[in-house]
Amino acid sequence: MSLTMWQQLYGRDGRAVLSVMCFLFGLYPCLPKAVELPLKPKEILVYGGNGFIGSSTVEKLITAGHKVTLVNRGNWYWDSGFTVRPFVSQIKCDRMQAVNKCTELFNYVSATNKIDAVIDFSAYHPQSVIETLDLLDGKVKLYIYISTDSVYEVCLKNHSGPTLETDAVRPDSQEQREDFEAQESYGHRKLMCEEVLTSYQLEKNGPPYVFLRLPDVVGPRDNTYRWWIYQMWMKLRPYLEKDIVVTAALANKPMSLVYVSDVADVIFDLVENPNPEALNQAFNLALKETPTLMELLENIRDQLNLTNIRISTSRQPDTIQLFPSVSRGPVNISKAKTILHWNPTKWETVLKDTVEFYEKAIGIPYFGRERNDIIRTMQTYFTTKPYNVIRGLRDIYGLAYPEPRDEL
């Protein structure tokens, strides 16, 4: 949200109001930079936009003064109810249902002549993409689809290096295809969504597209809690019964990660200045560094200054493993560097910022839902004595949980 827009909402004291909000929230500096608003804001339609990557992206679009409409089920995660919700239009729609049940969306499309960009964070089934393209027929200038490196899990790879975009080729054998699909239904469905967009563009004059294939995304406000679980496991280890272990088969395998803010920057740049070379292309986005899972956990431990915590390996089949989510190893980011000028944040900065966020998040009052989720996770999977988690939170963070209530 730009300073100009804040002043329009809150008058001349808008900056002071925001300063107070930033002080109360206490996460990190959030005063907006003064930006030059576009002469004509772009019309942006976002599917999702209230989650991890989506809210980070939408905040940037809001700051630039664009008109943003979100289509989602109406949930607001972390602090997106403060940072996103007041500044966008929202259409409640469940994409798992037929699009003809989304009256608000039909009305929006009917009243809109042109949509500069669709950003799709939430399509996990090809039918969702088909219905969206049919509904928006001829009105979309650019379709940005947030895909995943899981698509490579259902494809053949004939080299041992980092996975290239051109490796997203399904096997010719129907039997092998079905075998891959049975093992990796998520990657199969995401690749089908890409295939729908490709065929529409080639055969039905569909909109130009850009596919962003992301490995495991890390950073603040991750709804999967994967990083936060590892971090809390280390912090509460003296109060838990389960040692910190890594699956032996994956302990020393390099993996790709990507920082949420870097992804949001790329999406924003594609909307602001569409690059003709990027159109109808797929891009791998990842950090330059490819840590192993053991290195990732050791880095988190050292950042927390918990050098006495031991991390070991295990061959037990029930070993907890939250990273990586794919088996094909790191992705090659050369194409993104060349065409998208991809220059990701350094791993040491990602590590520091992410650890610091979750250390503060446990005590932020308006992260109550997320805090309850992480506490229940620790109590359920890491100890047979749930109260030990409460003791640890009190001793380490000074957190009284559940929060005390005044007598009536």
TrEMBL record:
Sorted alphabetically, the Gene Ontology cellular component annotations on this record are: cytosol
Extract one GO molecular function annotation from the record.
Answer: UDP-glucose 4-epimerase activity
Q: What is this protein called?
A: NAD-dependent epimerase/dehydratase domain-containing protein
Sorted alphabetically, the Gene Ontology BP terms of this entry are: monosaccharide metabolic process
One Pfam match, by short name?
Answer: Epimerase
Q: Which residues form the NAD-dependent epimerase/dehydratase domain?
A: 44-286
| Alphabetized InterPro entries for the sequence | Epimerase_deHydtase (IPR001509), NAD(P)-bd_dom_sf (IPR036291)
Where on the tree of life does the source sit, at the highest rank?
Eukaryota
